[in-house]
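Title: Comparing notes on inverse folding

I've been comparing how different people in this forum approach sequence design from structure. To keep things fair, I'm posting one structure and asking everyone to reply with a full sequence. Here's the target:
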C-alpha cells in the first residue's frame, strides 16, 4: 500500500493564516511522553509547511508521516497538499519481511510438507492484513480528520 507515497489535496475557505492556526491548535510538539496529548496530530508546523503524524488511540507502526504545504489559491481559498510517507524503518522492515516470506514460501514448496505450506500461507495472509489494511485504516482516519477540521473534502491525487 505504501510502497509509493500517496498524495492528497483539498481547498478550504479558510485563509492560509487560519489554516496554519488550526493546525497549530490541533498539533502537539514532538516530545517523548507517557500519555497521549489531547490533540489530533503530533509534529512540526511551519508557516507554509508541516510534518506531522496522526495521534492514534491504539498502537500502529504503519502510521504514516504527513508532509504537507499550505498555499493561497484562487477565489480567496487556501489549498493544502500533503503526502503520506511511511517511516524509513517501517519501509526497510517491510522489504526484509517480504524477502523472508518469499524464501520461506519457496522452501515450504520445495520440501512439500503440507504443514509448512499451511504456515506459509497463514503468515502471508497475516502480512497482507498488516501491510494493506492497517495503512488504509490510518489513511482514511487522516482524511476524515482533515475534512472535519477544514470543512471540506480531501481528494486523492496521482503520483507527482
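Reply #1:
Here's my take.
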Amino acid at each position: 500500500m505504501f510502497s509509493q507515497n500517496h498524495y492528497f489535496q483539498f481547498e478550504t475557505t479558510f485563509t492560509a493564516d487560519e489554516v496554519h492556526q488550526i493546525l497549530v491548535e490541533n498539533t502537539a510538539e514532538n516530545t517523548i511522553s507517557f500519555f497521549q496529548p489531547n490533540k489530533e496530530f503530533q509534529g512540526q508546523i511551519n508557516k507554509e509547511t508541516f510534518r506531522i503524524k496522526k495521534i492514534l488511540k491504539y498502537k500502529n507502526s504503519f502510521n504514516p508521516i504527513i508532509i504537507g504545504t499550505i498555499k493561497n489559491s484562487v477565489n480567496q481559498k487556501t489549498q493544502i497538499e500533503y503526502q503520506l510517507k511511511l517511516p524509513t524503518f517501517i519501509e526497510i522492515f517491510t522489504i526484509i519481511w517480504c524477502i523472508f516470506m518469499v524464501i520461506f514460501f519457496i522452501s515450504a514448496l520445495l520440501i512439500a510438507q503440507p504443514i509448512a505450506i499451511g504456515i506459509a500461507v497463514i503468515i502471508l495472509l497475516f502480512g497482507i492484513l498488516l501491510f494493506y489494511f492497517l495503512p488504509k485504516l490510518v489513511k482514511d482516519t487522516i482524511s476524515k480528520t482533515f475534512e472535519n477540521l477544514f470543512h471540506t473534502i480531501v481528494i486523492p491525487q496521482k503520483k507527482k
